[in-house]
Amino acid sequence: MRRATYLLPIIVILAAIGLSSIYIVDEREKGLVLQFGRVVAVKEEPGLAFKIPLIQEVVRYDDRILSRDIDPLEVTPLDDRRLVVDAFARYRIVDVNQFRQAVGAGGIAFAEDRLDSILRAETREVLGSVSSNDILSSDRAALMLRIRNSAIAEASALGIEIIDVRLKRTDLPTENLDATFERMRAEREREATDERARGNEAAQRVRAQADRTVVELVSDSERQAEIIRGEADARRNAIFAEAFGADPEFFEFYRSLTAYERALKGDNSTMVMSPDSEFFNYLRSDQGSRSVEGD
Questions:
Q1: Which of 265, 259, 248, 263 is nearest to 282 (CA)?
Q2: 143 CB contacts (<8 Å, ≥6 apart)?
Q3: Last residue within a domain, chosen from 143, 172, 201
Q4: Sign of the torsion angle spanned by Cα atoms 263, 264, 265, 268
Q5: Which burial class, exposed, middle or buried, applies to 295 when counting CB atoms under 10 A from its CB (0-12, 13-18, 19+)?
Q6: Which residues span the domain enclosing 245?
Q7: Which pLDDT band holds residue 53 (cuts at 50, 70, 90)?
Q8: Which of 25, 105, 143, 223 is 20 to 30 A from 50, comparing alpha carbons?
Q9: Domain holding 70: CATH number?
Q10: What is the three-class DSSP state of 113?
Q11: 155 falls within a domain
């Protein structure tokens, strides 16, 4: 009975020691076996492995592709038009031994701080060598590739491979938005003024051309009307002359009737003149014309 009492704690201790000597590495991880802070083994394949209990410890690092958002930073392109750039990077730990030596016990957090510094410096350098139009254009994949390629060498010293760098957002600083908006509005107003001036100039040309055409058409119409009127008057005079030559008495009678019509038309129905006036020869008697002839 006393012997069993001593054996049970020993068995428990041995079981605990045995269990502490076993560790499992997930397929999404890589493991390092450390002994007094020094790397003694690297476990990159998933599965079961052993270590020395109490003396050795296992540190695990994520083997997946990780993403890191870079804090917004302000860059100054070649045209001195400041921009606020928001970017992110995707990376992976490819050499856990080198990663451990570079970051020590700081782990992922310390490595990402170092990675932020690298990416911010390369982003400023690359974007500072081009104009803001190149950064804001849709064809900026080449700039992101340059940032990635420039940061690869420095990141490799950390045991990290940078897979991709992307610019999520490129905006003007808040204090520059109003000034930029005013400049854009002034440019649009200037363009609108230029367009209106060109339109007014074109309208003046059209109106001048139309006025000249009207004058030419009216002048030509009046000229043709005068010609037609002159031809008609000539024909009328020819007809009158022919009629007068054929029957002078009838022509005299016709002229008298025309004079009566013109004198008595409208409201002019009263005339005061001498009764023996020649104006009424054809109204007094049918011999009026002959008496006129006799006189």
A1: 259
A2: 126, 127, 130, 134, 135, 167
A3: 172
A4: positive
A5: exposed
A6: 193-268
A7: confident
A8: 105
A9: 3.30.479.30
A10: helix
A11: yes
Alpha carbon 106 to its chain centroid, in Å, reads 48
Tokens 């950064």 sit at which residue?
135
Length of the chain: 295
DSSP H helical ranges for the chain: 2-20, 96-103, 107-127, 132-136, 141-156, 174-246, 248-264, 281-284, 288-294
Into how many domains does the chain fold? 3
Neighbours of 87 (CB within 10 A): 22
CA–CA distance from 215 to each of 121, 208, 241 (Å)?
A: 75, 11, 38
100 and 158 assigned to the same domain: yes
Q: In this predicted model, what pLDDT tens digit does every residue of 73-95 receive, in sequence order?
A: 888 888 877 888 888 999 999 98
Residues 142 and 212 in one domain: no
pTM, 2 dp: 0.53
Please say whether the beta carbons of 68 and 115 come within 8 A.
yes
Q: Which residues contact 102 (CB under 8 A, 6 or more apart)?
A: 111, 114, 157, 158, 159
Q: Are residues 153 and 96 in the same domain?
A: yes
DSSP line for 198-253? HHHHHHHHHHHHHHHHHHHHHHHHHHHHHHHHHHHHHHHHHHHHHHHHH-HHHHHH
pLDDT in tens, 139-175: 788 888 889 999 998 898 889 999 999 988 887 776 6
